[in-house]
Specification:
By secondary structure, the protein is mostly helical. It contains 14 helices and six strands. The strands form three sheets. A two-stranded antiparallel ribbon has the order 1-6. The chain has a two-stranded antiparallel sheet with strand order 2-5. Strands 3-4 form a two-stranded antiparallel ribbon. Helix 3 packs across helix 7. The longest helix is centred in the first third of the chain and has 30 residues. Belongs to the peroxidase family. Classical plant (class III) peroxidase subfamily. Its cofactor is heme b; Ca(2+).
Length: about 375
Amino acid sequence: MDHRWSSGFRGAAGGGRAGFMLFVCLLYCLCFRSAVGQATVAVVQSGGSSHRPPPPVCASSPRQGVIDSTLYHPGDAACLMKSIKKYSYQEFLKDRPMAATVLRLSFHDCMTKGGGCDASIFKPGEIRDPDDINEGVRITVPVITRIRQRAAKECGVYPTMADTIARAGAAAIAFSGLADPTTAGFLLGRRDIADNQTGDDPKTLPNAVEAFDVILRKLTGLGLSLREVTVFSLGGHSVGKSACSHFKLRLNNGSTPGGCRKPVDPTLDPAFACKLAKLCRDPDADVSFDFGTPFSLDNKYFKLLLKHQALLRIDQAFATHSGTARFVREYAKRPKRFARDFLKAFVQVELMNINGPTTAPPKYYY
């Protein structure tokens, strides 16, 4: 016990009553403080809903392609931005390749013709289409659901699923070594696709077996320049893996004693083709796009293209096409330019056709 306090209660003659009153006062104050503390904890644990303003009034007709600032109160938007990133990081730390998969999920949600970044990717017709176009990103469904639920619990408000997917994709970029896309203007404000909508056609996504010019037309038709198509497509392939089935036709039909046959695709480095052929003896194998830095979003994949060591045929085509070859050479030499342009392109992609006529305002806020 602190003797400075105990000596006051003993007192001198005639000071007993004063000491008793001081004791009662201290006891009352301590009890009052405890009661206030418990009440405060109760309010915090309940999300503070008793002191919150009414949910925001969403715009009746938002502008398509423009962030809808009416979806959240400003403080709630700031909380969700941090919270979704935090819980995305927790998922990526448990499963490092998940960052690349979540980044691809955000692309697949946004880049279907006539659709946009509206969480339609989670509609059954898209995520489980008969051609299994979205098979590789299907594992993200429970991951994104957990991130959204945890962020909602922490902030006391529900983010839209579209914002959760987009922000998790942005977090994947930061987790993989680039700056957070918030530094390039990334914001929340995407409405989800309406319940009565069936979703988009996943077959309108760029396909690895299509002619390169067809793929370029698809991507530029979404509003991207050739520079943006180059930095975005190849930059996205600087992390993650591809199934052997996506590039096995570029290889050879087997090996000869002492070496490999020439690859079917003359644009593929023969030694690299031999390495891939060995890795793909298991037809279900996955191969990293970039063997050197498979988890880092950097410009190394552009350098591999200049060595004819791109995994996909369409990726290698960027290095020889008249409209894109100069950008490949530029980004191979200038890592800072790559990082800056990739962030800008990501922010633009995450605005594609958002808040269009097939979306709806959130049903629940708190």
